[in-house]
Design a protein that fits this description.
By secondary structure, the chain is α+β, with helices and mostly antiparallel strands. The chain is built from twelve helices and 17 strands. A hairpin with a 2-residue loop joins strand 1 and strand 2. The N terminus is likely disordered.
Length: 398
């Protein structure tokens, strides 16, 4: 990214894109691609302005790529850079995986940011009220997909050309506008009365060719109204969310450990809900994958004990409940933050308790054990530093 050039009118003009000695606005460049002018990826690489306008222009060009592949007759499976593929996704997008037969007839499949698998059952519609995440996106070569892509790009172009973006618009990106489009579709389950036969006809399917009565099958949803096609006419859109257990976000995998508990490895793992991903330290997601044994990018030198001075590893659990007999702690010490009346906060700070006697559903029990874990980790780090060794982080119990 380059720094944006100053606005000349103070408000309406957009920062310029410099390409091959010519200058034009980022929105004009994206619109040029939209009008068939073969956008920036056809010419020399555009240097887009830093800031919300540049981010949005990149979003438009990304959708332009999708459109070109679909126009060429391809289905498209796209994923963000921070998605790790663990298994072959084709049984899901082709409807061959158990309970997924209807997915084979959806125009668009998309992952979600759902963090509660109870809201992600086969016929649940709760995902429609959560954030869908375009980090994993499957686009089938259909008119419905073409109509959705056109609406998505048109929404972003409208924002760019209207000059509504502000310096604090970083929270708005192509995914934001995808969600806006999806929520405006008025989606109906295709098994709904009055929708099923109409949907079958649109897909070119005979009545009875697909069984709508199988209770365990994941539903797909059809838009109430049709969206215009770039080539003229219009099309209804059929869309659904990919199952969150198999196409997982970071909270379900790294925090809840749902896949481990169910012995079901994910198909794709998106490292969302992660910290340590800032300009000062950009390796948080990589470290999460490394801890899960899913990072294969480390060379031999990373594991070379001779060069690193060796390793230090703690054996066994950090805290054994049986070893805490007679240990007393002040209840409030473990809290991250205490709020309330002075009497309440004083009681927490002065109340000496046996952590093993606290009820399982008392957060202070878990926070107290965590204090002891952190103390053990602190001592291990000090010992490793004194010995010139690298500490292998132990398993952390929540």
């Amino acid at each position: 990214f380059s720094e944006p050039e100053p606005r000349r009118d103070g408000r309406g003009s957009l920062p310029a894109v410099r390409r091959g000695g010519r200058r034009r606005g980022a929105a004009q460049d994206a619109a040029h691609a939209d009008a068939g002018g073969r956008g920036g990826h056809r010419d020399e690489l555009a240097v887009l302005p830093h800031g919300p306008e540049g981010l949005h222009a990149l979003g438009v060009l990304k959708v332009d790529f999708f459109e070109e592949f679909v126009r060429a007759g391809f289905d498209v499976l796209a994923s963000d850079l921070d998605v790790t593929w663990v298994r072959d996704p084709r049984p899901w997008v082709t409807g061959q995986a158990a309970g997924m037969q209807l997915l084979a007839h959806a125009d668009v499949l998309v992952s979600t940011d759902i963090a509660n698998l109870a809201l992600d059952t086969a016929r649940s519609e709760r995902w429609r009220y959560a954030e869908v995440n375009t980090g994993v996106l499957f686009l089938r070569n259909t008119n419905g997909t073409r109509a959705l892509l056109a609406a998505w790009k048109r929404k972003m172009l409208d924002e760019l050309t209207a000059g509504r973006l502000r310096k604090d618009s970083w929270g708005f990106n192509d995914q934001t506008y995808f969600n806006m489009i999806v929520r405006a579709l008025g989606l109906q389950g295709v098994q709904s009365q009055g929708v099923w036969r109409q949907w079958l006809a649109e897909r070119g399917l005979a009545d009875g060719e697909v069984d709508a009565s199988r209770e365990g099958d994941r539903s797909v949803y059809r838009s109430r109204s049709a969206l215009p096609l770039p080539s003229g006419g219009s099309a209804h859109i059929t869309l659904t969310a990919l199952p969150a257990l198999e196409f997982s976000g970071g909270h379900i995998y790294f925090v809840q450990h749902e896949q481990l508990a169910r012995a079901t490895p994910p198909v794709a793992l998106h490292t969302t809900y992660q910290f340590s991903d800032t300009p000062a330290y950009t390796w948080g997601k990589r470290q999460r994958l490394r801890e899960a044994g899913l990072w294969r990018g480390d060379g031999d030198e990373y594991f070379d004990a001779a060069r690193s001075g060796g390793f230090l590893r703690l054996v066994g659990p950090l805290v054994e409940p049986g070893s805490l007999e007679g240990v007393k702690v002040r209840e409030g010490v473990a809290a991250v933050r205490i709020e309330g009346t002075k009497g309440y906060t004083d009681r927490l700070m002065n109340n000496v308790v046996d952590p093993t006697a606290l009820p399982e559903d008392n957060p202070m029990r878990h926070l107290t054990f965590d204090v002891l874990q952190r103390a053990a980790l602190r001592d291990a780090l000090a010992l490793a530093r004194a010995l010139g060794r690298t500490l292998v982080l132990p398993r952390w119990t929540c």
